[in-house]
Amino acid sequence: MKTEIKPQDTTRAQTFELWMSSPMPMVTLVKTLDVTRLRKYAKRHSMPFNMALCWCIGKAANQIEEFFTIPEQGKLYRYDRLVINVIVSNAKGEINSCDIPFSEDCYLSNPSVKNLLR
């Protein structure tokens, strides 16, 4: 669920002001990470590597307050939970965008998520 908030009452006020008029308000961060231990963990727990990686991203983002506030159509909204957006292939060989709600249990209790990320 989302709630509209006043940008000036948040830590994102200046960012909101600068980026709302931008034609493509997006930032991409690139960092090289050694994922050897994560690959071993995923293999040991019979978990797809993509699932483990998505969980790590969600776990990190879940601890940063600013990830819960998102601009939409000139307004700023606060979400009560995060989702991880992934691109998956469908049965026709095409790709789809899929939002998976972040969960502390690493999605293991949801077999449909496990199938999506294989």
**What is the domain tally?**
1
Indicate the mean pLDDT. Answer: 83
The low-confidence parts are: none
CATH architecture descriptor name: 2-Layer Sandwich
DSSP summary, beta strand count: 5
| Widest sheet: strand ordering | 1-3-2
How helical, in percent, are the residues?
25-40%
CATH topology description: Chloramphenicol Acetyltransferase
Rg value = 17 Å
CATH superfamily: Chloramphenicol acetyltransferase-like domain
Q: What kind of sheet is the major sheet?
A: 3 strands, antiparallel
Q: Which structural class is indicated by helix and strand composition?
A: alpha+beta
Pattern of helices and strands: EHHHEEEEH
Shape: elongated
Tally of individual helices:
4
What does this structure look like?
The relative contact order is 0.18. The chain has four helices and five strands, in the order βαααββββα. The longest helix has 13 residues, at 49-61. The model has no long low-confidence stretch (mean pLDDT 83). Helix 2 (36-44) packs across helix 3 (49-61). By secondary structure, it is an alpha+beta fold.
Task: Write a concise keyword list for the protein shown above.
118 residues; alpha+beta; two-stranded antiparallel ribbon; Chloramphenicol Acetyltransferase; 30% helix; single chain; 4 helices; elongated; 3-stranded antiparallel β-sheet
Topology (SSEs and partners):
Elements lengths: L1 E4 L7 H7 L16 H9 L4 H13 L7 E4 L2 E5 L3 E7 L5 E7 L9 H6 L2
Describe, in short, the structure shown.
The chain has helices at residues 13-19, 36-44, 49-61, 111-116, and strands at 2-5, 69-72, 75-79, 83-89, 95-101.
